[in-house]
Amino acid sequence: MKKHIVLLPGDGIGKEVINSAKDVLQAIAEEFNHSFSFETHEIGGAAIDQYGTPLPDSTVDACKQADAVLLGAVGGPKWDQNPSHLRPERGLLGIRKALDLYANLRPIKGFKNLLHASPLKEEVVAGSDLLIVRELTGGLYFGTPSERRDNGNAVVDTLSYTRKEIERIVDKGFQAAQQRSGHLTSVDKANVLESSKMWREVVEEKKAQYPDVVVEHLLVDAAAMKLITNPTQFDVIVTENLFGDILSDEASVLTGSIGMLPSASLREDGVGLYEPVHGSAPDIAGKGIANPAAMILSAAMMLRYSFDLNNEAKVIEDAVQSVLDSGFHTGDLQIAEGRQVGTTEMTKLIVDYI
Amino acid sequence: MKKHIVLLPGDGIGKEVINSAKDVLQAIAEEFNHSFSFETHEIGGAAIDQYGTPLPDSTVDACKQADAVLLGAVGGPKWDQNPSHLRPERGLLGIRKALDLYANLRPIKGFKNLLHASPLKEEVVAGSDLLIVRELTGGLYFGTPSERRDNGNAVVDTLSYTRKEIERIVDKGFQAAQQRSGHLTSVDKANVLESSKMWREVVEEKKAQYPDVVVEHLLVDAAAMKLITNPTQFDVIVTENLFGDILSDEASVLTGSIGMLPSASLREDGVGLYEPVHGSAPDIAGKGIANPAAMILSAAMMLRYSFDLNNEAKVIEDAVQSVLDSGFHTGDLQIAEGRQVGTTEMTKLIVDYI
Ligand SMILES: CC(C)[C@H](C(=O)O)[C@@H](O)C(=O)O
Ligand SMILES: CC(C)[C@H](C(=O)O)[C@@H](O)C(=O)O
């Protein structure tokens, strides 16, 4: 298989962990006889510094021609005081919209060796394994008007969805549930929002098409509670953009291993952008100690979702688990025993396993 | 002191616990030589059944003439399939708006004897004591347009605030922080929403007026994480309506005692509506086993915030703590030792202490 991949290192530890993903993908290519070509572009703060914009046209053009995109992370204190069109995260929002990456998938699964670092009691969190399917290109993030009014004495943002936009993400949620344990939780605020009422209608309409999936509706406030009190009750959660933003970040800390969590943002044809859930971690950037696992697992998601290379994805996931099982770990993981290693060594261990 | 209080029992266990609050207030009146008069009205499902609307005019009128309002809880499966204007929670949203109850205060403090029931590890949650100040009459809850478009093929909701609305709730947040540990966390999504940018500006402007308060800005997704990983870092959180809805429910399960949490919803002149955080609990309604503590503690908040009766409020709070310390508890509290009692006996114990 021949694939062309755009690498967007971004800022902070993004620049370090992106190399780990590349090394791992090259090992996979060799082992399974694929040909992956790579091309690197700037996004976020790095792009602001070099081009005066967080998302240069050259980056968008390259991504549009790629089979998939890997992104490190964006942001850092250097750009925190910039006006909003010159902030690193604008690059992220822009590329999601430019590529129409409407479906954000965030799997959250506890690693046994890491559960002790969870803020939750082990008996509450053990066994949790959920996937958040978040709508990523609509809702309050992109609705218009979003503006000051009345001489700056008032302000509005707009939560807007077309029925089609809701349908395609709800379909994605059902399909994901079919491939997993067949349980879908649709999260909305249908007791208040008109958009949530339409959302709930769409879910009800689609039910018949997926008779093998058990569907449940949950209000977003109740979902925020149940994620903590009973995380194991969830399989797939599907929800709109802002609710998904909040709930997926909430869920990401449950298992005590945010440094291990990958994510995928997909277009309808399967092209996708893959990035770790963690941020650019400016405090540890440049020190060679960042955990590359989330980035590497994001590359595995790319193989699975964009290239349909399920075996290859599995090999990467097994490699990460096995290296962890052997006691190797990066500093972020709060493991007392075993051996603490840096980004390069961790990557090499994973590559060697492959 | 002479005060007139409207009681809105609502539905489910609301009907039971409201009597507990009344008993406790009568004991306080006797003990401290106050005169509290009471008047009961319907809201929610009970009002739908009796008047065909979740919020009859007679209820609104009575509340407008009261010095304060106590509300039990609204909702239940009986009305779950109703069209949205005939759902119990419309009554709640309606009375908040009709009385201009813009500031919702939810204190969350762990009870030592109950921390074992927390989903969090005791070392994570111990010592947490926070207050969420939620804007309650603006934002996505009441913004217009909120409607279907394009022949039902699209939908919008509107997040709208006037600068004045933001200013008054931010002031409330600062004032609350002054009365507590002097730390305010303002939660927004300023990297995406225009309304959040205005929110952040207002907070920055107000800072100078409250030099004794340390302010921090936090994005809502980060707040959802930190509430779990580090709840003790918070003192007062101030945020807009929907973020406050989600975060306050999330926070309510941290300490393992949602049956103990009161809330206040205030108007600028101090008139307020007080209700437990828990819902109408249809599964245990009518059995006489509901925990009246959250309702009774809501009455204590009424004495403090609407009547400025701080001593009396403290007596109620001490009474609840002391009865709990003596080993008495209702069934919801997951306590193995001590003696399990019902609503009436629990109330009587608290009244006797007073
Ligand atoms: C950086 C920010 C705009 C972004 C979002 O809110 O979508 C981030 O929080 C995320 O979840 O990927
Ligand atoms: C019932 C519902 C409309 C209400 C809200 O969202 O405000 C409730 O969740 C609350 O927090 O009091």
Automatic annotation (TrEMBL), chains A, B:
**MF GO annotations:** 3-isopropylmalate dehydrogenase activity; magnesium ion binding; NAD binding
Pathway(s) this gene product operates in, as recorded in its UniProt entry: Amino-acid biosynthesis; L-leucine biosynthesis; L-leucine from 3-methyl-2-oxobutanoate: step 3/4
Name the positions where substrate binds: R96, R106, R134, D221
Q: Where does NAD(+) bind?
A: 76-89, 279-291
Q: Could you tell me which residue ranges the Isopropylmalate dehydrogenase-like domain spans?
A: 4-350
SMART domains referenced in this protein's UniProt entry, alphabetically: Iso_dh (SM01329)
**Could you mention a single GO BP entry for this protein?**
L-leucine biosynthetic process
Reaction(s) catalysed (UniProt annotation): (2R,3S)-3-isopropylmalate + NAD(+) = 4-methyl-2-oxopentanoate + CO2 + NADH
Task: Give the main EC class.
Answer: oxidoreductase
Q: Which InterPro entries does the entry link to?
A: IsoCit/isopropylmalate_DH_CS, IsoPropMal-DH-like_dom, Isopropylmalate_DH
Keywords (alphabetical) are: Amino-acid biosynthesis, Branched-chain amino acid biosynthesis, Cytoplasm, Leucine biosynthesis, Magnesium, Manganese, Metal-binding, NAD, Oxidoreductase
Per the entry, the cofactor note is:
Binds 1 Mg(2+) or Mn(2+) ion per subunit.
Location(s) in or outside the cell: Cytoplasm
Marked site (Important for catalysis) residue numbers: Y141, K189
The UniProt similarity line reads: Belongs to the isocitrate and isopropylmalate dehydrogenases family. LeuB type 1 subfamily.
The entry describes its oligomerization and partners as: Homodimer.
Q: What does this protein do?
A: Catalyzes the oxidation of 3-carboxy-2-hydroxy-4-methylpentanoate (3-isopropylmalate) to 3-carboxy-4-methyl-2-oxopentanoate. The product decarboxylates to 4-methyl-2 oxopentanoate.
Q: List the HAMAP family hit by this protein, alphabetically.
A: LeuB_type1
Protein name, entry field: 3-isopropylmalate dehydrogenase
Could you tell me which species this protein originates from? Neobacillus bataviensis
